[in-house]
Amino acid sequence: MTAIETTAQIDPRLPARLNADWRQLTRPTEPAEPFDPAMVDHLPGPARRWLRHAIAPGTLLRRSVVLHLHGTIRLGAWRPFTASEALAPLEGFLWPVTTHMFGLPIHGFDRYSKGTGEMRHRILGVLTVMTATGPDINRSAAARHASEIIWAPAAALAPQIGWRPVDGNRVTVVIPCGPWVFEPTLTVSPSGAVQQVTLPRWTNVGRTAWHEEPFTAVLHGERTFGGYTIPTKTTAGWGHGTPGWDNGGAFIHQMIDAATHL
Fold first, then answer.
1. Are 87 and 152 a contacting pair, CB within 8 Å?
2. What are phi and psi of 156, to 5 degrees?
3. SS3 assignment for the chain
4. 28 in Cβ contact with 7 (< 8 Å)
5. What pTM does this model have?
6. Would you call the peptide bond into 31 cis, given omega within 30 degrees of 0 as the criterion?
7. pLDDT (tens digit, 9 = 90+) per residue, 56-86?
8. 183 in Cβ contact with 172 (< 8 Å)
9. For 27, what's the count of Cα atoms within 13 Å in the CB-facing half-sphere?
10. What is the Cβ-side half-sphere exposure of residue 143, based on CA atoms within 13 angstroms?
11. What value does the CA radius of gyration of the chain take, rounded to a whole number of Å?
12. Band of the pLDDT at 206, cuts 50, 70, 90?
């Protein structure tokens, strides 16, 4: 069994009804041509810097990734979690996760696959503590998956992806997804590292009516996995740059432990 096949094994925390979605999102890219830095000559400056930094010359362009992560998430209090993620930025994601509350394990998942979104989390895998589906969840989950293109940078070379320069350090990626077009803006350092991703995301944060609100991921730390250099430390949430960021707006800190591009 190859390394790719081993890493892409279905996470046992997923319900069986999502096994086909996992296999779809983790199928190998075919054909996977080697990266030539000249492929990005026509892109805005920050996009060129990012992709030449993120993809080593000659690396096969694989448009999906399986991640293994750990971190803390704010569920009332900050709670540790472990997770995996099957991510194909042109199709969707599955995020099986385990955390604990009152000393009991909570297993669940977030997803956007086959055009729909869903969140479902259960204590001991039995007692439901959160479940959410419907048009609002679809739109919010689709935006999350588009913003995570930074972890599968080869997907940014797909022909359906567009670009709009902002300034010398920022570029907006135009990503069609179902009935929507999402436009995450990347802040790129002089070295080519992505430092921040911001996009309008559909939310009811603060128990308000559903609306678009700027969602931000602050990125720091990088590792190289199989020719791909990606950010590994993330703090994400709402209200970046305001007092709300430190008062409940930022709701997740995560670290990527392993990544295999497929």
1. yes
2. -70, -10
3. CCHHHHHCCCCCCCCHHHHHHHHHHCCCCCCCCECCHHHHCCCCHHHHHHHHHHECCCCECCCCEEEEEEEEEEECEEEEEEEEEEEECCCEEEEEEEEEECCEEEEEEEEEECCEEEEEEEECCCEEEEEECCHHHHHHHHHHHHHHHHHCHHHHHCCCCEEEECCCCEEEEEEEECCEEECCEEEECCCCCEEEEEEEEEECHHHCCCEEEEEEEEEEEEEEECCEEEEEEEEEEECCCCHHHHCCCEEEEEEEEEEEEC
4. no
5. 0.93
6. yes
7. 999 999 999 999 999 999 988 899 999 999 9
8. yes
9. 10
10. 23
11. 18
12. confident
Q: Which two tokens stand for residue 204?
A: 């009811």
- The token pair that represents 205 in the structure block: 């944060």
**pLDDT interval class at 2 (50, 70, 90):** very low
Q: Rounded CA gap, 55 and 162, in Å?
A: 19
Q: Are 153 and 197 spatial neighbours (Cβ–Cβ below 8 Å)?
A: no
pLDDT tens profile 88-128: 999 999 999 999 988 889 999 999 999 999 999 988 767 77
What integer pLDDT is reported at residue 111 of this predicted model?
98
Residue with tokens 């060129």: 48
Cα→Cα distances 57→50, 77, 80, 150, Å: 13, 44, 37, 18
Tens digit of each residue's pLDDT (9 = 90 or more) over 126-157: 777 889 999 999 999 999 999 999 999 999 99
Instruction: For residue 194, give both structure tokens.
Output: 């992505």
Task: Give how far the C-alpha of residue 68 lies from the chain's centroid of Cα atoms, to the nearest Å.
Answer: 12
Q: Which residue bears the tokens 């890219």?
A: 29
